[in-house]
Design goal:
heterodimer; A: alpha/beta; Beta-Lactamase; Helix Hairpins; Heat Shock Protein 90; seven-stranded mixed sheet; about 20% strand; elongated; B: alpha/beta; Rossmann fold; Dehydroquinate synthase-like, alpha domain; six-stranded parallel sheet; three-stranded mixed sheet; about 10% strand; globular
Chain lengths: ~550, ~375
């Protein structure tokens, strides 16, 4: 507003506003506003229709069937085209059905209760439900349900996915996998059995040969003794083989101790230096004296096996064998040593400059009796054994190899903080203590009882034998104090060793009993102890070892 | 008429019993809830309740807003608009004199434009019309039920602002002369004089036209003939009806030809001192006629005839006779107060004149006065 209307132009403009057409101030109340509102309503209606078209298009073109269900009655309230096609009903038919009519009579899962959701959850999933179409065709479906409130009433929105093809494929895949696993298992077993058979045959051939020689040399004790030595050597070799197979198949933890690994590695290297050809240069770097919790024999075997493998890879033309021992700290999950958890490890690295391996070979090197070597060159158990031992020590092996560039094995064993005694020399030099006590030897194999009887008698003991548990028990019952100690086999017909031991201990608590077990015997050291059995030795028996055990037990050593 | 003109008037229902049709008309607007704008005086006279009953009979619910003072204030308009929106009303019925009707016009435009009432000051400033408005006038004078004017007090600046817009013309006016029978003598006189000033100013307005002239002249003669009788015989419906018709005709005239200096000066006075609008107009009429006369001699000559005077050959005789007639008429209807008697000091005159200069009514006065001249006119009314 002008302050004053002195200016005639301004004055005229204002006058015109009052008496003029006043186009910017329409008189009819609300008319423009009503028009505006009508237009807006029209537009909103158009938009709503467009949206409905859009949503209906989306609703009907999903790959899952959508079914809206009344949770009280199970009646289908709404369904999309996909669901109608899936089950082969017309829209008006579909919307008169109950959800249960779509479920196959063979389906055991109660579908409606499964979909009616508790207060706590808004979603539920039913998997692999067998459903039935109008033409009795069955389908396997996953149903995803969620609760939706529509017009003040709770409904169940079920998304039904036909997974029939997928389920069939999945089943076929599983079957193929099972077949493959089975055939691989068979193949592995065949390889293992073949390998053992091969090795055993070799050994047996020697034993047979030398036995025949010994027979022909029986009149010449000198020659015969040489032959028998060879037979013994063969038998020992066979026992070693069995030990290897056992180590591979059984996780033996009973001899683990706090071990300065560098000492074992050093000893193994000393042995290797004398046995490897001069063309192979050995470089060793022992950088850590950290302790590990390990079985010294096992670790020794790991070093020997890896180095032997390296020797074979380089052949007699030679190369450089590098053995390193160092500490490695794994701070966090390190993908290059994936299964290892963070912590301190002792890393044993054995590398060669040999022919190396391609990926295909690398993938299989730890399989038992898998070998690329010529017959007679290697047993095929070496690396499998290494792998088994390392796994048994909570360790891990990383292998790096390239054809033509050599191979390196990195063995990681967790470092232990505990200090322990250095592995003592085997007290083998100690002569077996002789004795005069009374022993009862029980075994169903007469040759074994005979050998034992001969051996112990020579040591000064008085020895009785029995060839089964019942016989032994009868003998014992007649005089429970006749014997000072009983040695019994585990596996015997009629009465097993543990049952015999239990019976004997009942008759005479505290009786020293030694139980001899083979690999397949289903008895653990702990169970044997719990029965009251003082000692537990593994077959094959070595008489000197058994002799020491008998002596120690009689002298009051508990373990 | 050599100028393109527009004339506005609401739909009119005139005659005894017009009030009773309010319910059915409101229903025709498809209304459900009505804001009934009135004031305490009208409530007391019972007219507002009569209207409410008619509305309720038609199934409409009513929300009564009566917080309206004479010379309605801006905050009263804003509070009314809030009530209108909050209670979900969709139509307004204003029952009363100029104050409730002007207030209802303001409530309507505030509620539809969501702006402060003072933002509409001036001409053609309303972009969205208000909700439907039905008026039931209960005075014969303001013609607010007819006009495109809404006069609201700016309580902070203490002035009356004029909102002039075709969109404030009511949709329907139910003019029932019976409603004026409860007016006091003073109010009958003041509103009657207001109607006279409306007619005279519209007639001498520089925006006058044959369409407005005929209404203005007829209004003047009706007022001359019936105002005194209405005062003396308040229940005589012939005089009340004639006065109601005079007010309507004057309203049709001034709403389309606008007003002049009397109203510009009266608005300034009323804003500052909260005086009766009709009384202020009556006091200022004679000095303004005196000031304007020479700029509209012929027009004033016509008005003199309408006031019952014989024609004079000398215009100055006409001036003299007209002024004397107006003075005598004013006194006969009982308005004898001067500005001095209303407690106004002469020191206020420059301020009052200044505000009068900014009132839109001034632009249609036959002559544009200076501020000094306005001060002198005020002085003559002392």
């Amino acid at each position: 507003m002008p302050k004053h209307f002195k200016d005639p132009t301004e004055q005229n403009k204002l006058r015109k506003g009052i008496v003029g057409l006043g186009k910017s101030s329409l008189r009819k109340s609300y008319y423009p506003q009503l028009q505006k509102q009508i237009k807006e309503l029209k537009l909103a209606k158009e938009r709503a229709e467009e949206n409905e078209k859009k949503f209906s298009l989306i609703f009907n073109s999903t790959s899952d069937g959508i079914i809206l269900v009344d949770p009280d009655t199970g009646a289908i309230v709404l369904s999309n085209v996909t669901a109608q096609r899936m089950f082969g009903y017309l829209p008006e038919e579909m919307n008169q059905l109950h959800l249960d009519t779509l479920v196959s009579p063979r389906e055991e899962t109660p579908v409606m209760p499964g979909l009616i959701l508790g207060n706590s959850s808004d979603k539920s999933i039913l998997r692999g439900i067998s459903m039935e179409a109008n033409d009795k065709r069955t389908m396997v479906c996953d149903i995803n349900a969620s609760r939706v409130d529509i017009e003040g009433k709770t409904h169940i929105l079920a998304l039904v996915r036909d997974i029939t093809d997928l389920a069939t494929m999945e089943k076929e895949k599983e079957e193929i996998k099972a077949q493959l696993d089975q055939s691989r298992k068979m193949e592995a077993m065949g390889t293992l059995a073949g390998g053992i058979a091969h090795d055993f045959n070799n050994i047996l051939s020697g034993i047979f040969g030398y036995s025949q020689l010994a027979q022909s040399h029986i009149s010449n004790p000198e020659k015969a003794k040489t032959d028998i030595d060879q037979i013994l050597k063969g038998a020992k070799k066979a026992a070693d083989l069995i030990q290897q197979v056992l180590t591979f198949s059984r996780k033996s933890s009973h001899r683990k101790q706090v071990l300065p690994m560098f000492m074992v590695v050093g000893e193994a290297l000393k042995l290797l230096r004398s046995s490897l050809p001069a063309t192979i240069k050995i470089r060793d770097e022992i950088r850590s004296k950290a302790l590990v919790m390990a079985d010294p024999t096992n670790i020794h075997q790991v070093v020997i096996n890896l180095c032997t493998n390296a020797h074979h890879a380089m052949g007699d033309t030679g190369g450089t064998l590098t053995v390193k021992l160092m500490e490695k700290s794994i701070p966090e999950q390190d993908p290059s040593v994936a299964p290892l958890s963070p912590g301190n490890y002792l890393e044993l690295m054995v590398s060669d400059t040999g022919h190396g391996m391609d990926q295909q070979t690398l993938d299989r090197i730890f399989e038992p009796y898998f070998t690329t070597k010529k017959m007679g060159r290697g047993t095929g158990l070496g690396l499998a054994l290494v792998h088994s031992i390392v796994e048994d020590h909570q360790g891990h092996i990383v292998t790096r190899s390239e054809p033509g560039k050599g191979t390196s094995f990195h063995v990681f064993i967790p470092v232990t903080e505990k200090a322990g005694a250095a592995p003592g020399k085997n007290p083998e030099e100690k002569s077996v203590s002789k004795g005069t006590e009374r022993l009862l030897i029980v075994d169903d194999e007469p040759s074994l009882t005979r050998i034992a009887q001969t051996f112990f008698r020579e040591q000064g003991y008085s020895v009785a034998t029995a060839n089964n548990g019942v016989q032994a028990l009868e003998r014992f019952k007649s005089d429970p104090h006749e014997f000072d100690l009983v040695v019994t086999d585990m596996t015997m017909p009629e009465m097993t060793g543990d049952l015999l031991a239990t019976a004997l201990l009942k008759l005479r608590p505290g009786l020293p009993i030694i139980l001899c077990t083979g690999y397949s015997d289903n008895i653990s050291k702990n169970r044997a102890r719990s029965l009251g059995i003082k000692r537990y030795v593994e077959k094959p028996l070595q008489m000197t070892e058994l002799g020491k055990t008998v002596r120690a037990l009689l002298d009051g050593g508990e373990s | 008429m050599d100028e393109l003109r527009k004339f506005v008037a609401p739909e009119l229902i005139f005659g005894p019993g017009a009030l009773d049709s309010v319910g059915s008309y409101a229903r025709q607007f498809a209304a459900e809830k009505v804001l009934l704008v009135t004031d305490e005086g009208v409530l007391g006279a019972g007219w507002a309740h009569k209207v409410a009953t008619s509305l309720e009979k038609e199934g409409l619910t009513t929300e009564i807003y009566s917080n309206v003072s004479p010379n309605p204030r801006d905050h009263e308009v804003m509070a009314g608009a809030e009530t209108f929106l909050k209670t979900g009303c969709d139509l307004m019925v204003a029952v009363g004199g100029g104050s409730p009707i002007d207030c209802a016009k303001g409530i309507g435009i505030v509620s539809s434009n969501e702006q402060h009432i003072l933002e509409f000051e001036g001409v053609d400033r309303v972009s969205i019309p208000g909700p439907p408005l039905i008026c039931v006038p209960t005075t014969a004078g303001s013609a607010a039920d007819i006009s495109q004017f809404s006069i609201i007090c700016d309580s902070r600046r203490r002035i009356k602002i004029a909102i002039i817009s075709k969109s404030v013309v009511p949709d329907l006016s139910l003019i029932d002369p019976g409603t004026t029978t409860t007016l006091t003598k003073a109010l009958t006189a003041e509103t009657g004089m207001d109607a006279l000033v409306h007619a005279m100013e519209a007639y001498v307005s520089n925006a006058s036209s044959p369409i407005t002239d005929i209404n203005a002249i007829k209004a003047v003669s009706l007022i001359r003939e019936h105002l005194e009788s209405a005062l003396n015989h308040p229940l005589d419906m012939a005089h009340r009806s004639a006065m109601m018709l005079a007010s309507l005709l004057a309203g049709l005239a001034f709403s389309n030809a606008s007003l002049g200096l009397v109203h510009a000066m009266a608005h300034s006075l009323g804003g500052r001192f909260d005086l009766s609008h009709g009384e202020s107009n009556a006091i200022l009429l004679e000095p303004v006629v005196d000031f304007n006369f020479d700029h509209a001699r012929e027009r004033y000559g016509d008005l003199a005839l309408a006031m019952g005077l014989e024609p004079f050959r000398d215009p100055q005789e006409t001036r003299q006779a007209l002024l004397e007639t107006l003075t005598s008429f004013r006194k006969r209807v009982g308005i004898t107060t001067r500005l001095s008697g209303l407690g106004i000091s002469k020191e206020e005159l420059p301020t009052l004149a200044g505000f009068a200069m900014t009132d839109p009514c001034i632009v249609t006065n036959p002559v544009m006065p200076t501020k000094k001249e306005i001060e002198e006119i005020y002085a003559k009314a002392f």
